[in-house]
Design goal:
alpha/beta; Rossmann fold; 283 residues; 9 strands; 7-stranded parallel β-sheet
Length: 283
């Protein structure tokens, strides 16, 4: 079993839940100290930055040379970063970084481990997001890369079905993890760097976004709850193509399916609007 992005949050919780269920987990972490925190019965930390080809190759070699000849039951592509900001404001380097980590890194790991997954008839579980179904102002980079994950996963599922390797998409809504804290910190850094003209155009939105993320996260599920759902998907005999996690994700994805674009835009704007008022600086 491989879980990427297992240093903290949902990835760490998933690795621990799978280990409790008796699986041997290779937990991808970026630093040795992160590995020390998660190391335990059934969990072997491996240094894995999914944007680094040599670390991906080392992971694949570790699986091939496993002394106990264990089959690779599943790859959980969970690693990711967040970035908030208007499409116009975020630099091309920030956009590229989002796609390098949240899309290209997953593809690279999947390509490297597919031979092992084919041998064991294992499965690929790609962690997407409710933002892979809907996008609101300020979420363009994150939603853009999650939409791409959805499309890539749909193609991969059809390509691998004849080979006996299921591909499952998981779409969480709000989850109480450290990622939201890091994402809002990055948003505040973008706000601090706005020019006077950018601040005139986008300042109110940028000040509202951290409050919106905080409210969405507070109303979400715990990382342990999300991990239990992912662990069940690992063991299902005939998994569906996609699953949501949390009532908010189920509701939002249903609205995206039911509402025409203009009405969906209004609903999303209404959800964000209260945070504009709350976030305005004192005069």
């Amino acid at each position: 079993m491989v879980v990427t992005g297992a240093s903290t949050g949902m990835g760490a919780a998933t690795a621990k839940q799978l280990a409790r269920q008796g699986f041997q987990v290779l937990a991808g972490v970026r630093r040795a100290e992160d590995g020390d925190r998660i190391r335990g019965a059934g969990i072997e930390p491996v240094i894995l930055d999914i944007t680094q080809a040599d670390q991906i190759e080392a992971l694949a070699a570790r699986i091939t040379a496993d002394p106990n000849r264990r089959a690779l039951r599943a790859l959980v592509n969970n690693a990711g970063i967040g970035q908030l900001g208007p499409v116009e404001i975020l630099s091309i380097d920030q956009w590229r970084r989002m796609f390098e980590v949240n899309l290209f890194g997953h593809i690279a790991v999947t390509q490297a481990l597919l031979p092992a997954l084919r041998r064991s008839q294992g499965r690929v579980i790609n962690i997407s997001s409710v933002n892979g179904k809907v996008a609101m102002a300020g979420y363009g980079a994150y939603a853009g890369v999650k939409f791409a994950v959805e499309g890539m996963s749909d193609s991969l599922r059809q390509e691998l079905k004849p080979q006996g390797v299921p591909v499952i998409i998981v779409e969480p809504g709000g989850v109480k993890t450290e990622m939201s804290v890091r994402g809002t910190a990055a948003a505040r850094a973008v706000t601090a760097a706005l020019t006077s003209e950018q601040n005139r155009l986008y300042g109110p939105l940028m000040r509202a976004l951290p409050a919106h993320v905080a409210a969405f996260t507070k109303a979400g599920v715990t990382a342990d709850y999300a991990a239990q759902r992912i662990a069940r998907i690992v063991s299902m005999r005939k998994p569906r193509a996609r699953y949501t996690i949390g009532r908010d994700a189920a509701m939002i994805t249903r609205l995206a399916w039911l509402l025409p674009d203009r009405l969906l835009d209004r609903a999303l704007a209404a959800n964000l609007r209260p945070h504009f008022t709350a976030a305005q600086p004192a005069r």
